[in-house]
Amino acid sequence: MECGGAIDERRFYAAEQLARGSQTDVLVSHVDSPDGFYVQQLGYLTNMMDEMQRVYAAKNAACHALLNPRKGQVCVAQFSVDGKFYRAVIELLLPHALVDVYYIDYGNRERVALQAVKKIEDKFMVIPMQALKCRLADILPMEPRNGWQDAARRRLIEASDGKPLKMYVDGADATGHTVTLYECRPDADVSINALLAQLDCVRGVAPR
To answer: pTM of the prediction?
Structure first.
């Protein structure tokens, strides 16, 4: 990793595309809507995240300063909610030393001060991006032309927040994964898709 003014051309490895019919354990990391949310596979980030906090919390980390940021640059950014550092990509440079970043392991975006954005060390580039874009299978908005109501987004957040879930991949293409999510309870597995289908603003459709 350079400390000078050289242009940083590095890129994160792309997120894995899961095969149709595969199953994996996930956490839902960010929700925009039932057909636009992000999950992480369990077990990939813990050690790296611990080391990243140690490295970027150091008082003598002057070499990590990002002096000449540019759109598309890989970085580490300090999330405003919890103060921790996460892998990110700069999406937009703004006046007053502000930047828009995309957190590549979680799927969310944020506007932060440039001083909260740091150079990323090579050792934190090894693991591919972990945010997998998904949409729930077999459900649609009750009025598709009006899009998803916020009640559906909130219900998905409530049903998935902080819970390890089983994810079955019904299909995958360049835009993401079509999935069914299950909460594994002692008495039975509960389909998150079916929970949302019970809402007045959502209608279930027959599986293809």
So the answer is: 0.91
Host domain of residue 73: 46-124
Question: Residues 186, 89: one domain?
Answer: no
> Each residue of 26-85: pLDDT tens digit?
999 999 999 999 999 998 898 999 999 999 987 666 778 888 899 999 999 999 999 999
Residues 125-160 pLDDT 10s: 999 999 999 999 999 998 888 899 999 999 999 999
Write the secondary structure of the chain as one string of H (helix), E (strand) and C (coil): CCCCCCCCCCCCCCCCCCCCCCEEEEEEEEEEECCEEEEEECCCCHHHHHHHHHHHCCCCCHHHECCCCCCCCEEEEECCCCCCEEEEEEEEEECCCEEEEEECCCCCEEEEEHHHEECCCHHHCCCCCCCEEEEECCEEECCHHHCCCHHHHHHHHHHHCCCCEEEEEEEEECCEEEEEEEEECCCCEEEHHHHHHCCCCEEECCCC
Sign (positive or negative) of CA dihedral 84, 89, 91, 93: positive
Count of domains for the chain: 2
